[in-house]
Amino acid sequence: MVTEARTVTCGFCGVAFEEDRGQPTCGRCPLSDGCHFIRCPSCGYENPVAPAWVQRLKAWTRRTVEGRTP
Amino acid sequence: MTQGCHGSEPGVATLGGQAGRGGQDGRAAPLRVALVGAPNVGKSALFNRLTGRYVTVSNYPGTSIEIARGTGRIAGVAADIVDTPGMYSLLPTTEEERVAREVVLTGDADVLVHVVDAKNVERMLPLTLQLLEARRPLVLALNMADEAERAGVRVDVERLRERLGIPVLPIVAITGRGLSALERAILDAPHRTIPLPPPYANGVGHALASLRERLSGVYPVDPLVFASLLLQGDVAAADAIRSAEPNGGHEAVTHADGLAAGLGGPAAYRIAVERQRTVTGLLDGAIDVPARRATGWRDRIGRALQRPLTGIPILLVVVYLGLYQFVGHFGAGVLVDWIEGTVFAHGITPFLDHLFQGIPWPAWRSLYVGEYGLLTLGLRYAVAIILPIVGTFFLFFSVLEDSGYFPRLALLVDRLFKRIGLSGRAVIPIVLGFACDTMATMVTRTLETKRERVLATLLLALAIPCSAQLGVIMAIVSGRPFVLVVWIVAVVATFMLVGALGAKLLPGERAAFHMEIPPLRMPRLGNVLTKTYTRMHWYFLEVLPLFLFASVLLWIGQLTGAFDWTIHAMKPVVSALGLPAETARIFLFGFFRRDYGAAGLFDLDRQGLLSSAQLAVAAVTLTLFVPCIAQFLMMLKERGAKTAIGMVAFITPFAFGVGYLLHLLLGAFAW
Fold this sequence. Notes:
The complex is a heterodimer.
Chain A: E1 7-9, E2 16-18, E3 23-24, E4 37-39, E5 46-48, H1 52-68
Antiparallel strand pairs in A: 1-2, 3-4, 4-5
Chain B: E1 31-36, H1 43-51, E2 55-59, E3 66-74, E4 77-83, H2 95-105, E5 111-117, H3 121-133, E6 138-143, H4 145-150, E7 154-155, H5 157-164, E8 168-170, H6 179-188, H7 204-214, H8 223-231, H9 235-244, H10 250-261, H11 267-283, E9 287-288, H12 296-306, H13 308-356, H14 362-369, H15 374-403, H16 405-419, H17 427-433, H18 437-443, H19 450-463, H20 467-477, H21 481-505, H22 525-560, H23 562-576, H24 583-592, H25 594-606, H26 612-623, H27 629-639, H28 641-668
Parallel strand pairs in B: 1-4, 1-5, 5-6, 6-8
Antiparallel strand pairs in B: 2-3, 3-4, 7-9
Helix pairs in contact in B: 3-8, 3-11, 7-8, 8-9, 12-13, 12-16, 13-15, 13-20, 15-20, 15-22, 15-25, 17-18, 18-27, 19-21, 19-27, 19-28, 20-25, 20-26, 21-26, 23-24, 24-25, 25-26, 26-28, 27-28
């Protein structure tokens, strides 16, 4: 299965970066092990990343809408 | 800055004589290649591709910055390749940038490869122009070309190559796409004519040329780059010029001062503006970015947000509508009233009481449904009080974030922050602190100087309430404007006072602040809801176990009598603040989490146990109180045990001291 890499646009500085090229923060925080945040490589701002089910829902919605577009 | 032995004469536009290393001309010396560029553009991925296994990582001489060197074959020719630390500009603000610049300015590399993110070319090309000022063989690699294509960014590589006069190649370092062409371009670069950098307008180009003409010493790279740095006030460049020039460089330095004064603003800023303008011109028709470009009204609003005269009133309106009305009235009023007053009071709590009646031992029963029960206190605080407040706060926060307001806020507060020894960049952790102080403390590591990092950590621990606490405080004060005013004045005054004192006591450089501002945009509902959900999800997962843990500790304390003893021991302190004995409990809660304490305060206030003055004193003291356990652990990790413990030792008595002073002050005015 081919998976599409997800691009995150930093909520602070606006730099676009691919999710797996940001700096994951999980494991660095002493208490929050399973958080969905990714740090912008440019400014360090922590951006929330949508959980997998939300991303799947978005992708499904997009496909459905595009499928209906003549 | 190191001085080399080979000179560079004005007007010489080629360094082709240095080419041919690595076997082409029969010499054994390998081609020396340096990869330069901003952080996280894929330099290391390219480095790994070019070098394979033969890599050494060591500290750059005289620094603690690690630098990777490796050997490999570039288009079949032996090469030494160095991967430099991330650098945004040749005018450095961090130790990493100093090291990367050093690699460029020593002139040791036969070829510089500027690696940029193909999706953000416009932001990264200013460094290309600076590298051109060094007049070294240069190749521009547009990395992550696949991502750029997916994002709809189209770069006319041929046109850009023609305009810059250097090889420009789209690559995907991680997959190897385009690397053969890149390798050929690297090998060919020393033989190519090195172009002059494009001229800058509005006097900047003339100033650079004029200063460049005054430099006649021997430099490892073209003196133009030293002239540019000197004009921007770079101390290391001035030292290098003094030692390189036959007359000690006095004339050049004086001339630079005069030229800088004539630029009509700080030279570094003026040059950055003209450089960016040149980049925009270079890219005109050479790049197609499907960006949400700022339109006229967006530009105007964006500027209004950044200027103090208009930005501060807008900020106050945003805070009033967003925090006071939406979070305070709606979240903490309407939603909490319904969830706690109806769902819990008439549904869940009676059901739980009934359910646990079956436990014959009262002590065990009270663990679940007692005064400090897991379900009736821990779960109720987390779900019925904190969650609706935090949910509305995160919704408000996500709207601001998605609109592009935060970077404008950073510029707005830059001047204010400078007064307390911070740059506007510190607004990133400070803004994040309003969501969660723990993650904000971690983000302080991105600040440029140690002084800034320590100051920001202290201010986060002391005077920045996290989302939950802020929401609860807003809920408490939403019906009492007097308490709100007292709370804001006390917390802001503390922030400024401690910041200013800290800045005076802590030695170190004041950091400069440069930031590119993304376009202002209309928040997208999908983004806002996703961000709100993700933050709430994370928050709930973190807060619920802590609230339950605190409830268990309080239950144990109640059973053993330790809780009553602690409350009794705290009574003199609480009395000194003019507060009823019951408030000792909320400070005890606050030791676990400030928002847990704030929720306790909210509970007490709803029982009508506090006057306005008492509420103001309690809210201010609790806001300034010790950070939560998670934040303290992060402080230990980021700043070290000595600094973290020192901060807590300062904050605890300081918070009560401010509360005491406030109590005296309010009492003196008979409030």
